[in-house]
Write a structure and sequence with these properties.
10 strands; Metal Binding Protein, Guanine Nucleotide Exchange Factor, Chain A; 7-stranded antiparallel β-sheet; 3-stranded antiparallel β-sheet; mainly beta
């Protein structure tokens, strides 16, 4: 890692949902929480908790020098809404094939 740059991945306990236009795309009580210097915490959700049948693979890919190469998925009205690292760097191996959404909500018990 670059000096001053840090990434941590930990098992989260939050109940996290990804919703787009009222449609639940993911619902998980076992997110991984990735914290990276200079960025907001991101929730990486196990594929079993994501409605992958609603997502369409995108041609988009990006490279992060710290995490590796990301693949993206879209909805008909939302391009590249979701990403995952199919082969992440060893330092963040836990996030392999977990899905991350740009926007999620944390569900609190009522």
């Amino acid at each position: 890692m670059t000096k001053g740059h840090r990434i941590t991945v930990e098992q989260g306990t939050e109940h996290v949902r990804a919703v787009h236009n009222g449609q639940v795309l993911a619902d998980s009580t076992r997110p991984l929480v990735l914290r990276e210097t200079g960025l907001p915490p991101r929730y990486y959700l196990p594929p079993e908790d994501v409605h992958v049948d609603l997502l369409t693979p995108s041609d988009t890919s990006t490279h992060c020098p710290f995490k590796g190469d990301a693949s993206y998925w879209s909805l008909p009205d939302a391009s590249d809404l979701v990403w995952a690292y199919p082969d992440p760097k060893p330092e963040v191996a836990e996030i392999k094939d977990h899905f991350c959404f740009y926007e999620v909500e944390t569900v609190t018990a009522e």
